[in-house]
């Protein structure tokens, strides 16, 4: 992932557009260099400084023929040596940063790194674009949805109307099978958070049994759904309407906490207890912030590097904060509306029981699929706009001027002590008369 430097496009345009002034008595004036041309910074504090140039391609004479096992062992050692010694790109902008090996050897955190480099847009050290992680996570999510939604509907209608089997036997089978992959994944993520190893734990939580908020939400959801299945299937004549409520109950248990956390964030209230990486007494973030952070950090294996990059991105980018806030409302309020609608349809007697079961189990998952299909292009569009607006932001020019004369106001009209996180108007939205490129470019670094 390449660096995204604030104001880099503005500086590049200025470097090409500003004329070179030649002097009769001296050499030509040197144009300012772009901040993208900067020495690379790595995790390891003990390493020697490296140049900006990429490693040169060396030619070797063809090695003698070797057996398959020797070649395989040699290639493995070469890959390992290359990963440890070569720096093909900045480790903070590489998905390798979200590995346990990189986490153990690094010398500082992502938050401290971006605090020292405020001109950089914090990157998320995790990617699904290549590697096996995306297929593993996508396959597991598909298996969980199939097990939680499709299997109960198929078993109920096939065994009841195809095999003429009594209800308590049918739901004994459904209860025994339902949620298998979900329970396994919940057990795996719980073990990761219980262990003393800090890689998967929330930021600031180094003790054992440091569950994040997503784990507690899953505990609540599993307890409620299991209770409904046991109560509904216990009698000889099953309570079909009770057995149709696990789908809406899942929406209540997940969307309810997301809505409450988003409400806390909108009202500026403090956290009454630790919420993932937010300690007690700190300001609460919107609900989707914690859900995405916990799932990618624990279930997808991103670990603390992803939590650090996620928090740094949220603190640095106003566009990113707005997207997280909008997604929190977009997922929580409609989910509660769908859950209430399904509950009403399940509870009122004019709706036949045969229809009720399909509504209760299918509608919540169909709604979630539609919302996911809307969310993916929405998020991609916002993040593309975020990157473009960050590169076109001229705040870095104002900071360069303030280094020369702190008493002067910045070229964007901001006060010298203005917060760096305050959103500023991008350059492409400003009139031509307010362009800061007309003077003082020789002092830009």
Short description:
By secondary structure, this protein is mainly α.
Q: What does it look like?
A:
With 445 residues, the chain is mostly helical. Among the domains are: 244 residues, no CATH class; 49 residues, no CATH class. Helices cover 56% and strands 0% of the residues. The protein has 15 helices and no strands. α5 runs antiparallel to α6 and α12 packs across α13. The chain is elongated.
List its salient traits.
445 residues; mainly alpha; 0% strand
What class would the helix/strand composition place it in?
Answer: mainly alpha
Proportion of residues in helical segments? 55-70%
- The total strand number stands at 0
In terms of DSSP E residues, the strand content is under 5%
Topology (elements, then pairings):
Blueprint lengths: L7 H10 L50 H18 L14 H6 L4 H7 L16 H30 L4 H11 L2 H15 L18 H21 L6 H4 L2 H22 L19 H13 L3 H14 L1 H30 L5 H40 L2 H10 L41
Helix pairs in contact: 4-12, 5-6, 5-14, 6-8, 8-10, 10-13, 10-14, 11-12, 12-13, 13-14
């Amino acid at each position: 992932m390449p660096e995204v430097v604030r104001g880099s496009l503005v500086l590049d345009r200025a470097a090409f557009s500003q004329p070179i002034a030649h002097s009769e008595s001296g050499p030509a004036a040197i144009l300012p260099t772009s901040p993208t041309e900067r020495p690379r910074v790595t995790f390891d504090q003990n390493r020697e400084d490296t140049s900006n140039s990429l490693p040169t391609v060396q030619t070797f004479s063809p090695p003698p023929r070797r057996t398959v096992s020797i070649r395989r062992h040699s290639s493995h050692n070469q890959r390992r040596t290359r990963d440890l010694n070569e720096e093909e790109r900045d480790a903070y902008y590489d998905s390798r940063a979200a590995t346990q090996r990189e986490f153990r050897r690094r010398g500082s955190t992502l938050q401290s790194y971006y605090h020292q480099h405020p001109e950089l847009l914090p990157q998320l050290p995790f990617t699904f674009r290549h590697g096996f992680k995306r297929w593993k996570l996508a396959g597991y999510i598909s298996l969980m949805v199939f097990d939680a939604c499709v299997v109960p509907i198929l078993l109920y209608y096939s065994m009841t109307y195809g095999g003429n089997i009594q209800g308590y036997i049918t739901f004994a089978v459904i209860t025994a099978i339902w949620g298998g992959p979900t329970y396994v994944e919940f057990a795996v993520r719980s073990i990761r958070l219980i262990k003393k190893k800090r890689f998967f734990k929330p930021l600031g939580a180094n003790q054992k049994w440091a569950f994040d908020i997503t784990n507690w939400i899953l505990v609540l959801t599993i307890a409620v759904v299991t209770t409904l299945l046991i109560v509904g299937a216990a009698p000889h004549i099953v309570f079909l309407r009770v057995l149709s409520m696990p789908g809406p109950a899942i929406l209540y248990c997940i969307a309810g906490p997301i809505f409450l956390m988003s409400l806390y964030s909108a009202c500026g209230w403090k956290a009454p207890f630790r919420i993932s990486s937010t300690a007690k007494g700190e300001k609460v973030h919107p609900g989707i912030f914690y859900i995405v952070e916990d799932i990618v950090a624990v279930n997808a294996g991103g670990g603390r590097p992803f939590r650090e990059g996620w928090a740094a991105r949220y603190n640095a980018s106003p566009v990113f904060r707005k997207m997280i806030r909008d997604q929190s409302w977009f997922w929580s309020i409609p989910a509660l509306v769908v859950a209430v609608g399904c509950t009403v349809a399940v509870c009122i007697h004019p709706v036949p029981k045969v229809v009720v079961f399909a509504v209760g189990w299918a509608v919540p998952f169909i709604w979630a699929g539609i919302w996911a299909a809307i969310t993916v292009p929405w998020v991609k569009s916002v993040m593309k706009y975020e990157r473009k607006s960050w590169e076109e932001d001229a705040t870095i020019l104002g900071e360069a001027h303030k280094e020369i004369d702190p008493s002067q106001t910045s070229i964007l009209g901001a006060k010298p002590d203005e917060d760096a996180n305050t959103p500023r108007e991008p350059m492409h939205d400003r009139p031509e008369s307010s362009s800061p490129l007309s003077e003082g470019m020789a002092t830009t670094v």
